[in-house]
Design goal:
- With 315 residues, the protein is of the alpha+beta class.
- It is 31% helix and 24% strand.
- The strands form 3 sheets. The chain has a 5-stranded antiparallel sheet, covered by helices on one side. The chain has a 5-stranded mixed sheet with strand order 8-9-10-11-12. A two-stranded antiparallel sheet has the order 1-7.
- Helix 2 runs antiparallel to helix 3 and helix 5 packs parallel to helix 6.
- The longest helix has 21 residues.
- The radius of gyration is 23 Å and the shape is globular.
Length: 315
């Protein structure tokens, strides 16, 4: 595909007979040339067969969120997109799956959630998350809630939600929801003489952990690993315990957080609100460009002026 600025090229799989593919590439390069004196460098790479589509059938329980994210991460590794695209898709898909787990089915009546993903010929990844429950509108009175769709909508190229018509005999209110995400993938262009370089092996995410201590009158906590639907409650409890129920100011370092979704952001809002009762401050520290910094920014937890690595939850 055409190479944008920054030395990246798309992940559109080649299709058709070899002669046809070559003709398309040459025609495209000539169309982009500015004149007969221009020099064009063409780098070609032999890729393995396209990855088969991902198709998961999940139970609507908290453990399924981790299963879905790990399966998506392994599947994306076969496509070898930019790391930023991997983080973006894992966060976006995690938000939608978590929303289905929390809200699609009534308490005590679990159902099924289906996750499908496939890469199109145009290099656009399409991912569908569907359920057979009833979509629950976010409560505007609950701070930090309902931001998941906004978060996904700002990260992904296209988000579509629909409620398909259910067949006759379906339980009352069981409309079902299908959320479709579309996002164009890119991967780094590399110059190499190797015939078929192996795809890089990515390090596994560290397990969730919270370490805490005190530095004078300020309590600090360092958070590692994924902060999602499965760990957000534990994060809130441990941060409140470290701050003595919100009576002490708290600084939370999110630099080593590998995943921060809307459930984690909501937990931080809850901690902030508890500290506010005692007029104490909550400092959030996130490295610029990190997963946590992106989630905080999209959730309107903006860095304070002059402190590019810090953000305070606002009202």
């Amino acid at each position: 595909g055409p190479s944008p600025a920054g030395g990246q090229h798309d992940v559109s799989p080649a299709r058709g007979e070899p002669e046809s593919v070559v003709d398309q590439v040459v025609d495209g390069l000539l169309a982009r040339a500015g004149g007969p004196g221009d020099a064009i460098t063409l780098a070609a790479e032999w890729r393995p067969s396209p990855a088969p589509a991902l198709n998961l059938d999940l139970a609507s329980g908290p453990g399924s969120l981790r299963t879905a994210r790990h399966a998506l991460a392994e599947w994306l590794t076969q496509l070898d997109p930019l790391v930023h695209d991997q983080y973006t898709l894992q966060l976006a898909v995690g938000e939608i799956v978590a929303n289905a787990i929390e809200h699609a089915y009534p308490p005590g009546q679990p159902g099924r959630i289906r996750l499908q993903a496939a890469l199109g010929d145009d290099g656009v990844l399409e991912c569908r998350i569907s359920d057979r429950g009833s979509w629950k509108a976010p409560d505007p009175a609950s701070s930090g809630r309902g931001a998941g769709l906004m978060l996904v909508g700002r990260m992904i190229d296209q988000l579509e939600m629909r409620h398909p018509v259910q067949p006759p005999g379906a339980p009352p209110g069981a409309r079902g929801t299908v959320v479709t995400l579309r996002h164009r993938l890119w991967r780094p262009a590399t110059m190499t003489s190797a015939a078929s370089p192996a795809l890089p092996v990515r390090a596994a995410s560290p397990p969730f952990a919270v370490d805490s201590g005190a530095d004078g009158s300020m309590v600090w906590a360092t958070v590692r690993g994924p902060v999602d639907l499965a760990t957000a409650s534990s994060l809130r409890s441990q941060l409140l315990m470290a701050s003595r129920g919100g009576t002490l100011p708290l600084s939370v370092d999110l630099t080593e957080v590998s995943h921060l979704d809307n459930a984690g952001v909501h937990a931080l809002y809850q901690v902030k609100e508890q500290l506010a009762v005692y007029h104490q401050a909550l400092d959030l520290i996130a490295a610029p460009g990190s997963v946590a910094a992106a989630a905080l920014g999209l959730a309107a937890l903006r860095p304070a002026p002059g402190e590019p690595q810090r953000a305070r939850p606002g009202p």
